[in-house]
Prior knowledge:
Among the domains are: 2-110; 138-170, no CATH class. Helix 3 links the parallel strand 2 (39-45) and strand 3 (67-71). The protein is of the alpha/beta class. It has a 3-stranded parallel β-sheet with strand order 1-2-3. It is globular, with a radius of gyration of 18 Å. The protein has helices at residues 10-17, 21-34, 53-63, 89-105, 113-121, 160-163, 165-170, 183-192, 196-205, and strands at 2-5, 39-45, 67-71, 76-77, 80-81, 138-139, 144-146, 158-159. It is built from 9 helices and 8 strands. Iron/sulfur cluster binds at residues 130, 132, 147-148, 150-151, 175, 177-180, 185, 189.
Amino acid sequence: MFRISYDGPPDVHDALRGPNAYAVMEEAIDAVLANGNRVVLNATISSSNVHRVVELVEYAVKRNLPIKFQPVFDGLAYGKDVRGQVPDRDSFREAVRYLAEEKKKNPLVINSEPNMEYYTAHPAPPFVPCVSGVLYVRIDPQGMLFPCSIMLDDHLKRDAVAEGFAAAFQNMPRVHCTDCMCPQTLEMNYLFDMNLRSLKNLPKLF
Ligand code: SF4
């Protein structure tokens, strides 16, 4: 499966990712599909598209592709400061409520119901136990282990190449975090918490 970032119609996508990025994205989708692989659209809700999620869903329907939504991180995303792109809370909630309703009739919207409920209730969402760094870890191409895809601070990483994977995993520092806004990490925590509604939705995500 290939997850391809999609931010919205050309004016939105190109403004965020650079000139011609939308056309390149479409070429990438076509190439992946032509090779018989699955594509999931990864849509990050930001201040640029929070009022246009209807159009994002329409594009998914037009291409008949599953679409997964996540909020823009309130901080650094792969080294880039994206705080200016964080949508206001009410607009974000309104967008998620629309998506939750859409999901009831549209199987292409693949965030789980608990995930939508979590986002809608944020910043006081239902408690989800975090087992990152204990039952799963993120590994980067250099062999560095991190507790999860969000916790990428240097002081949390372990070197699986130098230490060996098992030792690095066992020595992962514990993080005390309850703010799980990434749908992937959230679903991992639901998975290990045996959340049945999340488990039912899981094949669509992985
Ligand atoms: S972002 Fe989620 S998975 Fe990562 S440490 Fe926080 S609660 Fe755990």
